[in-house]
């Protein structure tokens, strides 16, 4: 349950306002005038002591002035409209027609052609055979016509025992990033979770024919693959095809496809070359289309073949870690420097993740792509960018963007040593990145807020520690928002502004 609650950032940014709930009241804080006002009053919610678990209200904006509120208690959503002078409740939307209606929370919402598509998560308790209870989550995709919101319809549901890390609605597709892989059931409108972690008995329909006997290395610009052919041959008998995101090797006289598949990222196909030595040893040289992007594995579907690291690569890991342990002589910020202590306990409780993309054209949910990120762990999302997320790769944070086919996710940026920093902390409740990936903010328990700047070539990284309990405030942190050199922290008792 604590894991569920920690997934939600209860501080929402809209135009020049910060939106947040206090008890049953929705407040809007004007960051330009430093004034606030109550813009919506939700119905009374049962106190925490009167029930076994409790979910706070949630709010999302789908365009410049339309927002959706779920109270977290009643089976109802509210459609609100906000402008410069006032806020009005346009419609109250009944969710009682959903199979599971307890504690609705809005995960994601988008508007297409006058219809709002909303992904709502609800909960229910399942009684096991041994009479124990477990919590089950239901993700429902509903559409709400703006002209007649009462005509709400449910397109499909996803049931699971785990809440997704992140979701995205885009171009008639839903992308669900989670610890497990999702599969469809016999009911075309329902998708259930397959309780199998990535790389545990999961098969793929992707066209990946890679050999088990190859090695590969990479630089910031190139990929080099060494591969032993099954038989000796000549250059004229080999067909090597480099495509935008694929590579294939075929022996012409036998028409045998001996190596290839969909690559982890795109390549500059006209700059890729190959060589053949001793009639059997093939080397492929691929030029990365996205420079300075580190490939987590060679193929899009990880086959478990690790990159071969040389001494120079290992030294680069050490150099990245030193950015967070050295002294920055150009330090100008007023907060206290936060160094990673060598005696800190390091726990590796981060979770593996996979993503599943569903199409919802028509009235059904249909899986169209599934992929796993073997060896990568979930780290965090990105402020104001639902299409971006960060995974731990070795000691680093690898930032991905959800894009269109043929490569559903693409590594677009790296935050050096972010994985190491995360694992050196205990009781992390919130972690996020700024929109431009230049700042990482972590909240440890309810006391410490850590700020790290992406070094991006600098010898050391600027890093700060903020004690949020130094004035006696022992309340928990409910949300954070990072905007340029300002961090807003929502605590249970107040809203804090940190400038750096």
Give an account of the 3D structure:
The chain is mainly beta and 500 residues long. Helix content is 5%, strand content 49%. It has 3 helices and 36 strands. The chain is globular. The two termini are 34 Å apart. Mean pLDDT is 76; it is low at 47-52, 185-189, 194-212 and 327-349.
Task: List the defining traits of the structure above.
500 residues, twelve-stranded mixed beta sheet, 36 strands, 5% helix
Concise structural overview:
Helices cover 5% and strands 49% of the residues. The chain is mainly β and 500 residues long. It is globular, with a radius of gyration of 25 Å.
| Count of β-strands | 36
- Main beta sheet strand tally, sense and closure: 12 strands, mixed
Low-pLDDT sequence parts: 47-52, 185-189, 194-212, 327-349
- How does the overall form come out from the CA principal axes? globular
Average pLDDT figure: 76
Radius of gyration using CA atoms only: 25 Å
Structural class: mainly beta
Strand content: over 45%
- Please give the count of helices: 3
> Roughly how many Å apart are the termini?
34 Å
């Amino acid at each position: 349950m604590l894991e569920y609650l920690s997934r939600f950032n209860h501080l929402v940014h809209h135009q020049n306002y910060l939106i947040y709930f206090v008890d049953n009241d929705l407040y809007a804080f004007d960051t330009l005038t430093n004034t606030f006002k109550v813009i919506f009053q939700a119905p009374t919610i049962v106190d925490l002591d009167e029930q076994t678990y409790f979910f706070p209200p949630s709010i999302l904006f789908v365009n410049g002035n339309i927002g959706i509120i779920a109270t977290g208690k009643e089976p109802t959503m509210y459609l609100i409209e906000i402008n410069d002078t006032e806020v009005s409740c346009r419609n109250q939307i009944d969710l009682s027609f959903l199979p599971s209606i307890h504690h609705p929370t809005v995960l994601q919402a988008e508007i297409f052609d006058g219809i709002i598509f909303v992904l709502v998560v609800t909960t229910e308790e399942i009684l096991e055979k041994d009479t124990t209870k477990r919590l089950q989550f239901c993700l429902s995709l509903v559409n709400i016509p703006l002209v007649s919101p009462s005509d709400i319809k449910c397109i499909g549901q996803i049931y699971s025992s785990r809440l997704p890390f992140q979701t995205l609605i885009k171009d008639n597709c839903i992308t669900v990033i989670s610890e497990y892989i999702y599969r469809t059931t016999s009911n075309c409108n329902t998708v259930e979770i397959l309780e199998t972690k990535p790389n545990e008995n999961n098969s793929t329909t992707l066209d990946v024919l890679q050999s088990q006997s190859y090695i590969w290395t990479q630089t910031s610009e190139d990929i080099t693959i060494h591969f032993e052919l099954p038989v000796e041959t000549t250059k004229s008998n080999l067909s090597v095809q480099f495509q935008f995101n694929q590579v294939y090797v075929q022996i012409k006289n036998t028409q045998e496809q001996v190596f290839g598949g969909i690559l982890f990222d795109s390549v500059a196909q006209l700059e890729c070359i190959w060589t053949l030595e001793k009639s059997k040893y093939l080397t492929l040289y691929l030029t990365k289309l996205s420079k300075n992007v580190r490939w987590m594995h060679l193929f899009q579907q990880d086959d478990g073949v690790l990159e071969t690291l040389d001494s120079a690569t290992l030294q680069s890991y050490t150099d990245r870690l030193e950015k967070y342990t050295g002294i920055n002589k150009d330090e100008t910020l007023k907060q206290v420097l936060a160094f990673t202590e060598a005696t800190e306990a390091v726990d590796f409780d981060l979770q593996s993740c996979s993503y599943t993309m569903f199409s919802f054209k028509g009235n059904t949910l249909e899986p169209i792509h599934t992929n796993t990120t073997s060896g990568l762990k979930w780290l965090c999302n990105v402020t104001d960018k639902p299409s971006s997320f960060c995974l731990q790769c070795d000691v680093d944070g690898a930032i991905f963007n959800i894009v269109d086919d043929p490569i559903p996710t693409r590594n677009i940026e790296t935050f050096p040593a972010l994985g190491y920093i995360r694992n050196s902390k205990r009781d992390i409740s919130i972690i996020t990145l700024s929109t431009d990936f230049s700042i990482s903010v972590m909240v440890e328990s309810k006391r410490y807020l850590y700020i790290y700047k992406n070094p991006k070539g600098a010898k050391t990284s600027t890093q700060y520690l903020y004690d949020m309990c130094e004035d006696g405030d022992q309340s928990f942190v409910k949300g954070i928002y990072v905007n340029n050199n300002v961090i807003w922290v929502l605590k249970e008792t107040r809203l804090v502004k940190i400038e750096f």
